[in-house]
Design goal:
110 residues; mainly beta; 6-stranded antiparallel sheet
């Protein structure tokens, strides 16, 4: 497997912030995300399958520590998001007023 991209999705201290749109490289099977922040996080990873149509939809994030699955990331840690068929992603900071950083890499056969 190759790391197809390495990027910072979001680096903010503002509640309700949505990241720029990131294009998921063709061949990416998943995106591995590391989220850090002060206090309790409330971060949602969103994606869509078509770059021109449709709305961004919340994607399931798998906690790589305990393998729990949720639509919101509520604790600092490393998460995996399935990216097969996803063309664009965004990250939304839904409720933390402290510093929040979300970064990661797309992984696949690329």
């Amino acid at each position: 497997m190759a790391v197809l991209a390495n990027f910072v999705f979001l680096d903010t201290n503002s509640t309700g912030t949505t990241s720029s749109t990131f294009y998921v490289p063709y061949g990416a099977d998943s995106v591995v995300i590391q989220a850090t922040g002060a206090g309790t996080l409330n971060v949602t990873i969103k994606g869509k399958a078509d770059t021109e149509n449709g709305d961004f939809i919340a994607l399931a994030a798998i906690n790589q520590t305990d393998y729990s699955v949720a639509e919101s990331i509520t604790a600092s840690g490393i998460y995996s998001v399935a990216a097969g068929g996803i063309r664009e992603m965004q990250v939304v900071n839904g409720g933390n007023a402290g510093d929040v950083t979300v970064f990661g890499a797309a992984i696949g056969e690329g």
